[in-house]
Structures are given as C-alpha cells and as structure tokens.
Write a structure and sequence with these properties.
470 residues; 21 helices
Length: 470
C-alpha cells in the first residue's frame, strides 16, 4: 500500500475512533519533558542566582553544633547547589508574575467617562505614608493600578507643602528635584488619562500639577492640552452637544492659561516668562478657541471671546506689573511688550496703557493720561455719546487721582487742577461731594490755581476714596 493511502486511512480511522487519552506512562513522560524545558528556560532567564548567594540565606545558628553544621554544609554544597538555585529562581520568577500590575484587579470607577477616578479609600496607614513620602506612595498605587486623580492631587499638594516648609531648599530647586510632575505625566500616559482633556475639568488637579510642569520643563505638554481640538477635548462616549463642549473647553483652557501665567510668576522664569506666555496665548487665541469644530471657526469680529479667554491671566499679570512698577523691579522691555498685549484682553486698554505709561521705568509720561481724560470728558458731555467715565467708575477714579498726584508732583498745577475738577464733576456721589465746600472747590479751567489749595483738595479726595472703599 502506498504511504499516501496509509496516511489517509489513519486520518479516516482517527475521525471515526477519536484518540484515547494518554495512559499513565505517557502522561509521566510528557510532564517530565515539560518540567525539564521549564527549568532550562528558567535558568537561562535568571543566571545570576549562584549557589554561594543562596547559601547565605541560611546562616548557621549559634550553638555547639555550629562547626559540625558548617562541615556538613561544605560537603553537601555541590550536590544541593543546582536544586537550591532552581528553587530560588522559581521563587523570584513566580514572585515577579504575582506582583505584576497586569494581574492586579482594578477598582471600579465612579464614572466610566472619567478615567483616573476611583472609589479607593485610604486607610490611616496610607495617610501616614502619604505624609512621609507622598510621591512614593503614589508610585506604589500606580504600580497596583489604583491611582486616581484625587490621589495625584493630594500627593502633589503634600509634596508642595513639604517643599515650601523646608528651610534648606529653595522652592524652585525642591520642585525640580522632586520630579513630581514627570511622575504624574507618566501615569497619565500609561493609564490613558491624557487621551482626552477630561481631567482639565478638575481645577484642583490643574492647580496642583501645572507649577511642577513649568519648573520641570514640561510647559509644552500644557500647551498641547490647550491647543487640543474639541473633537479630542472629550472622550468619545460623551453625550454633550458641540456648543456645550466648546463652552466648557474654553472655560477649562482659560483656567489652564491662568495657572500657567501664575506658575511662571511664582516658580518659573518670572514676569518676563509670564508676559511671553500671555503674548503666545494672545497670538494663538483664535486657533485655540476655534477648537476644530467643522464649519464653526471663530469669526474675526468676535473679539469678546478672545478677551474672555485672556482676561483672567491678563488681569493677574497687570496687577503684578503695577506692584513691580511701584518698587522699580520691572524692566522697560517687559513693560513695553505687555502694553502691546493689553488691547487683546482689556476693554479699557487705553486707560491701562496710559496708567502704565505714567510709571514707565525709562520714559514716564502723563501726556497719554491727560489726552485720554480730555477725550473721555468730551464724550461724556455729548448727547447720546455714551458715558465712558461711568462704565468703570472705580478704575477711572483711581486712575484720575494717580494722574493728579503725578501732575502736582511735577508742578503741572493747571493740569492737576483740571483732573481733580473732572473727578469732582463726574463722580460727586462716589467721592462724597453732595454739597460743595468753598474751601475745596477747584477754580475753573484757565484761572490761577493755588498750589496749597490743589494739594489740600487732592488729600481730601484721596481720603474720600478710602472712606468710600473704592
């Protein structure tokens, strides 16, 4: 019979009569082969375990049999070394498997659409370990697959508090050496949390992680989150409408920009880097706010949306610049750059620009302030012209008083008296001028103004300002 025919016959017989299970001898042979193969591969994977290393794990106990025990160990070392080495290697091998995060049972999250949120409750021992080593505790939970956004926030805040309370370290050096921001970033990438911008909805987390990112040189990651389109700004299973997504994404990115500027001011490159950050956001604001929605790009005329996006960070930076100007710690170049950014976030940018120009460290001038006040007073006196001075009363009053101080200090008596008259006429109620007092009435424009009268009126208006808490 031909071999091919014999094979066909055997195949047919095996289909009609299935093969019987292995008998005891065949099973024992198969098990022996598998065991030998497993040990061979195990020893090749763990070649560092030697007999002399494993023997040290069983030290002699003190007693009268110690010498005899050592002699017996020397005589049996060779015979038992192979068996002991295989045993220890197997122990380490199975230990690495059982402790692998891949075989750890993950906790069920509260919301499937919010990765990184879990229901794990911390024990008292966990709290103590977090206080002693917050990022070490966080890394352990990352390895176990139980880390959450709340845990990351708490550990970052604890680490920051520890750094701020350390007298031996500078805050910037302590943050950089901690590597806390890098640790959290790795967890976000490995857990899939960074696949969307869902986590930006948690402002406490953003507030805790952004300073570390700035100090550790990961600001580009925050800019990637900011420029991410609305299609990737939420996880795919969201049921929100595109309009709501755009609104919420704008709000979250506005807060992210605020924290970036704040981190640069407090822990990063200082006011120069903060101004550069705001300028970059202003230049890219239209692309950032368009958010990639097909057919819904931001119109060129929609300046209000850009101002709303930049305003919180811009106002923070404006107040900081005013404080630095009062102490003389702001460079002319930084101030000039900030003045060019003002129109993109401030609805009264002319006032703010004139105010900053009055205190310019290199070229202070009150001319823009006088020009602006004259223009505003003329517009207020025109019918249906819109009252520019009443829209931001407190700001105009403070601006006018500051301009009057500088004018009188420069002995520009007529201009100083005119500014005080504008304030007295435009804001009588705010300044408590319900009734006129002859001693505090300013002469009309064009008349001779007494120096002492102007100074007394300025002091009185300033006192009224403080009394009315403007």
């Amino acid at each position: 019979m031909k071999p091919s025919a014999l094979l066909s016959l055997r195949s047919l017989v095996s289909k009609i009569h299935p093969r019987l299970p292995l008998d005891r001898q065949e099973s024992q042979l198969l098990l022996s082969l598998l065991t030998t193969s497993f040990r061979h591969h195990l020893n090749s994977e763990y070649p560092s375990f030697r007999a002399d290393e494993t023997q040290n794990q069983f030290p002699d106990k003190p007693g009268r049999h110690g010498a005899r025990g050592r002699a017996r160990q020397d005589t049996t070392a060779r015979s038992g070394s192979a068996k002991l080495m295989s045993s220890v290697a197997a122990h380490h091998h199975f230990g690495s498997i059982l402790t692998s995060p891949l075989f750890t049972k993950r906790r069920r999250s509260l919301s499937p659409g919010r990765p990184g949120e879990g229901t794990r409750k911390c024990s008292l021992e966990d709290v103590r370990r977090i206080v002693d080593d917050p990022m070490g505790m966080f890394e352990e939970n990352v390895a176990l697959g139980t880390a959450t956004i709340d845990m990351a926030t708490f550990c970052l805040m604890s680490r920051m508090k520890e750094i701020l309370g350390s007298p031996a370290l500078s805050v910037r050096a302590g943050m950089r050496d901690s590597g806390a921001g890098t640790t959290v970033l790795r967890w976000m990438w490995s857990s899939g949390l960074s696949a969307s911008n869902d986590f930006l909805a948690d402002e406490r987390f953003v507030n805790a992680v952004v300073p570390f990112l700035v100090v550790e040189g990961h600001s580009d990651v925050a800019w990637f989150w900011m420029k991410r389109s609305v299609a990737a700004n939420r996880s795919p299973n969201t049921s929100s409408t595109p309009g709501y997504l755009q609104h919420s994404a704008t709000r979250e990115k506005r807060y992210l920009l605020l924290k970036l500027v704040e981190a640069e001011l407090n822990y990063g490159g200082g006011v120069d880097s903060a101004i550069e950050t705001l300028q970059r956001a202003a230049d890219q604001a239209e692309a950032i706010l368009a958010l990639g929605i097909p057919g819904q790009g931001l119109p060129k005329t929609e300046i209000g949306s850009i101002r709303a996006f930049l305003a919180p960070a811009g106002k923070l930076l404006y107040r900081h610049c005013m404080r630095l100007l009062s102490t003389g710690d702001l460079s002319p170049k930084a101030l000039d750059t900030f003045i060019t950014v003002l129109p993109k976030f401030s609805p009264i940018h002319e006032l703010h620009q004139a105010w900053l120009q009055m205190h310019h460290p290199a070229d202070p001038s009150t001319r823009p302030a006088i020009k602006l006040l004259r223009s505003a007073s003329r517009a207020s006196s025109m019918p249906h012209g819109g009252d520019r001075l009443t829209k931001h009363k407190k700001t105009w009053i403070k601006f006018g008083l500051d301009a009057a101080r500088l004018l009188l200090k420069e002995e520009q008596w007529e201009d100083g008296a005119w500014v005080l008259e504008v304030l007295q006429t435009s804001f009588p109620e705010e300044l408590g001028l319900h009734t006129k007092s002859p001693s505090h009435t300013v002469e009309r424009a064009g008349a001779e103004v007494d120096e002492q009268t102007s100074l007394r009126l300025l002091e009185w208006l300033d006192a009224s300002l403080r009394m009315n808490r403007l």
